[in-house]
Design brief:
By secondary structure, the protein is α/β, with parallel strands linked by helices. 46% of the residues lie in helices and 14% in strands. The chain has one domain: Alpha/Beta hydrolase fold, catalytic domain (Rossmann fold), CATH 3.40.50.1820. Strands 1-2-3-4 form a 4-stranded parallel β-sheet, sandwiched between helices. Strand 3, helix 5 and strand 4 form a beta-alpha-beta unit.
């Protein structure tokens, strides 16, 4: 994703102020991590239902999965857990950000709020849209329509037209 975006800019097909990124679940994690690790690549981002803090998720019951994915526990390699957590790099974010998260998501809404707050503290425009009563992902058709319209409006407003 980030490499492809860079190739598109280098080829002259677009500019970074015309690029946005979005995704839900693992895609939302990728979008959040991309804007945190590569702050000059995207002008806007819409991470949805994203894992943002590997430490928190490890503590809340995903220890086996995260230990498997990283090869270690956070006690053995805290630097690795910090490096893979978008929250701990959020102060680097420059892309205007629209965050979607369900209030009942197993990925804690409080972590999404913290992510929002760190971005806001850097004077970067950011909005957190919390879907009440929604778990992981947005399966309700009514909420999907709302999310789709919010996303379209957001990217139309934030991405510079060619």
């Amino acid at each position: 994703g980030v490499e492809i975006a860079g190739q598109m800019v280098r080829q002259g097909w677009t500019t970074s102020d015309q690029l946005g990124i979005t995704g839900c679940s693992y895609g939302g994690y990728f979008a959040a991590l991309a804007i945190a690790r590569f702050p000059d690549t995207f002008a806007a981002a819409n991470p949805q239902c994203s894992l943002l803090d590997a430490f928190t998720e490890w503590q809340l019951g995903y220890s086996t999965l995260l230990s498997y994915l990283t090869g270690r526990s956070p006690m053995e390699d805290p630097d690795r857990y910090q490096a893979i957590s978008p929250l701990y790099r959020a102060n680097n974010i420059q892309a205007e950000t629209l965050i979607f998260h369900g209030s009942e998501d197993f990925l804690q809404i409080d972590v999404a709020r913290n992510f929002h707050d760190v971005i806001a503290e850097n004077d970067v425009p950011v909005m957190l849209y919390q879907f009440e009563g929604v778990g992981h992902s947005i399966f309700n058709v009514s909420f999907q329509r709302i999310a789709a319209q919010l996303q379209v409006d957001f990217f139309r407003r934030t991405l510079r037209a060619p």
